[in-house]
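Researcher: Before we compare anything, I want clean individual predictions. No alignment, no superposition, just each chain on its own. First chain goes here; please echo the sequence and then give the structure tokens.
Model: Echoing the first chain and its structure:
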Amino acid sequence: MIQRIQSVYMFAALIASGVLPFVFPLWVTKSGMEYYFMLNLAFVVLFSFSTTLCIISIFTYKKRQKQFVMNRLNILLNLILLGLFIYQSLNLSGETDPEKVVSEKGIGMFLPIISIVFLSLANRAVKKDEDLVKSVDRLR
């Protein structure tokens, strides 16, 4: 049952929270240094919990209710992560200094949004499967 569509969505969320943070920087400092998630312990912990929940959720395909709850918990973790990113981006100035060096927000800050979208789609598919199983049980 790993080939179900919700497993594909959860795998995409796993890629967004487990692989892409290593590729895309969160932001670029004024000195030109790229800031990755590994430089902040809170980001590392939240990304690793999100990745772990995705992996566990993919392999608990026989327990749809548990999978649904884990996906919701993962969405909550990603919302907390997104809140931390928003807080950090509000603290980044984005202003130019006298040397015309600009601090830029990176695409890595949008990874929790991508993960939330895929997890919501997975939850919708899990709910649809659960409703289908309940309707078949009613016919027996």
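Researcher: Okay. Second chain, same rules.
Model: Second chain and its structure:
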Amino acid sequence: MSKWTGFKNVVKRTRFLPLMLSMIREVTVDNTPPAMSVEVTTDKASYFPGEEVIVSVHLGDFTPSDRGYSYLNFIVQYDSQVFDNSEYLQHSTYKDANYTAGNEVNNIFQFNFQNPVDGSIHLGMNTTMRGIDIQVEAGSKHNCIPAVDQTLVTFKLRVKEQTLAFNSSITLANEFTRIRTSDAGNSFYLYSPDVTVIPPASVVISQSPSVSVFSLEKADRLA
């Protein structure tokens, strides 16, 4: 027992344990630069209740030596208390007419771009968040999704009619990100730490414009 007590005293005096933990941390830190950046944008900065919102997902900031990817999977999250997309869906899946695959991945012979799927996601205690699941895969090992600046997909939401003036965000739920490199026989998955998320601008929901009935009646009398 006295030997063990003596060892603990040595550790305490020399700060050996904090040093050891620091070394472990240095070893486990991933200093690999991100593979790409992802930015989610909307066609306008401000909307009235009932207006349509065009959402786009952009990829960029690839390294010059990047050979491309065989698979990309991103989920874009939105607050279902503010936005709705039921009119654009069929069985929770976007209809062909209501989303557009980007120029780099819209060739159905080279890439399998799945219709975006809408579903609930649970982030902490917030159960109102929903996510648009976006997946695209190269049709064969001879193809790859190019590592060039591109708009991956554009899709639609609508501000709910009864939404009050509010600020909200439509952004990447990066914890669900999965991307796969295109190296044949040596491909591997990358996850959220390998992607830089560019913070989105806040979407402003303005109060619906109203017309005073009194003002209209007064104008009629003056006419």
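Researcher: What stands out in the second chain?
Model: Residues 71 and 137 are 4 Å apart (CA to CA). Additionally, The two ends are 103 Å apart (CA to CA).
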